[in-house]
Structures are given as structure tokens and as C-alpha cells.
Design goal:
With about 210 residues, the chain is α/β, with parallel strands linked by helices. The chain contains 5 helices and 15 strands. The chain starts with a strand and ends in a 5-residue tail after the last helix.
Length: about 210
């Protein structure tokens, strides 16, 4: 027979609960921690007024978005201010890797979603991450890209896959040529969802007619 304990003083209305003893040989159930609440999107900006609002509009699910701004002189900061979850830190630009590593130091969550200001985050990505666990043994995720013009993806693109989602503690950025690349010290996986890199302005009329979707 199980012993009993009650909440509060015993009375006619007291609720009594049996104490359950866990067999030491029985493993406690493993709970899958959802990943989405543990992700902070990180975006670098400098004069990204044509892009930033469109990109932030796809990140309304995030509790916080961290924007590292290199002292924009256009309407970028005004547009970012329209998104309450976006936090802006201004830092003088030294290199892309320097900006990103500074951003990592200011991210509070264990996971980082690294985005350029002209990326369009697909709904399929959010749905895919919703079904993933934060403790699944993967330290990073890469994505393939479509290049989009007038909001439509081109049939082919030369833009290579990029690691976009990773554990903060496993990542460090390095400058590479004119750009930068994140190094993730752990296993990575390719996402099914394809990201879109958007054309923010109308292409020149000389080649506009040759675009095929």
C-alpha cells in the first residue's frame, strides 16, 4: 500500500495524493525540447531599406531578432523600429566575420539563425524546424537557395548552400575572400526547405526580358 501526503492541513476537504516511487531500473521519459523558441535570428545591416522590412516580416515567430547595424544612413533603422521584437546594436564595420562574431556574443539563445537582409525565409522552414528537437545531436543546418526576381524563383542559381542555423557555442566566423563563412564544430544537416535570395530592385531592362522562371 502506498503512503499518502496532502496539500495543506488535513480536513474533510483535503485532497490526498498517493506517493509514486520510481523504479531505479526504469529510465525517466525523454522529452523532446522544441527548437523554435530557442532560436534568435541574426542580421547584419548597412543601408538595407529596400530589404529589411520584408525580411523581418517573415520572422514574427521569433521572440527576439538581433540586428547588427553598421551605422546605416538610409531608412533602415526606422523600418526596423516597426518590429518590436527587433533589437539593434550599432557597431563600426571592420569585417563581416567581426560583425557576426560580435553578434554571437550578444545572442542569449542557444541557437542562431544567420540571415542576410535580402533573404526571404520560407514558411516551409518554420514548419520543418517546428518538428525538430533542440537536443537532437545536430549542431548546424545548411540551406539551398533560389535566386528570386519579382518575388519568383529562377529555375537555376549559382548561389551555393550556406550554413544558416547553428548552435551558438559550436560556431565561429572567419573572413573568406570578400565574404565570410561560419565554422560549426559538430555534425550538420541539409534542410529540405529552400531559402530565397531576393532581388530588391528591378533588373536592368537589357536583360529583364531574358529572365526565365
Amino acid at each position: 500500500m502506498f503512503p499518502y501526503f496532502s496539500l495543506g492541513k488535513l480536513s474533510n476537504r483535503s485532497t490526498v495524493f498517493p506517493l509514486q516511487f520510481l523504479d531505479r531500473n526504469t529510465e525517466a521519459p525523454k522529452h523532446r525540447s522544441p527548437m523554435l523558441p530557442h532560436i534568435t535570428p541574426l542580421i547584419l545591416t548597412f543601408n538595407e531599406a529596400p530589404n529589411i522590412a520584408r525580411t523581418l516580416d517573415k520572422l514574427l515567430w521569433a521572440k527576439q531578432v538581433l540586428v547588427i547595424d553598421s551605422f546605416s544612413t538610409d531608412e533602415t533603422l526606422k523600418l526596423v523600429a516597426g518590429f518590436p521584437q527587433a533589437q539593434v546594436i550599432q557597431r563600426k564595420f571592420d569585417s563581416f566575420a567581426g560583425q557576426c562574431n560580435f553578434g554571437l556574443e550578444n545572442v542569449a539563445t542557444p541557437w542562431v539563425l544567420s540571415l542576410d537582409a535580402d533573404y526571404l525565409l520560407p514558411e516551409a522552414f518554420v514548419e520543418e524546424i517546428k518538428s525538430s528537437a533542440a537536443d537532437n545531436g545536430v549542431d548546424g543546418y545548411s540551406a539551398r537557395f533560389n535566386y528570386c526576381v519579382f518575388g519568383k524563383p529562377l529555375r537555376s542559381t549559382l548561389y551555393p548552400p550556406r550554413t544558416v542555423l547553428y548552435r551558438k557555442e559550436k560556431a565561429i566566423y572567419h573572413d573568406e575572400g570578400h565574404g565570410h563563412r561560419v565554422q560549426v564544430n559538430g555534425p550538420t544537416r541539409m534542410l529540405s526547405a529552400r531559402f530565397c535570395r531576393a532581388q530588391s530592385r528591378s533588373p536592368p531592362s537589357t536583360w529583364r526580358a531574358s529572365i526565365t522562371f
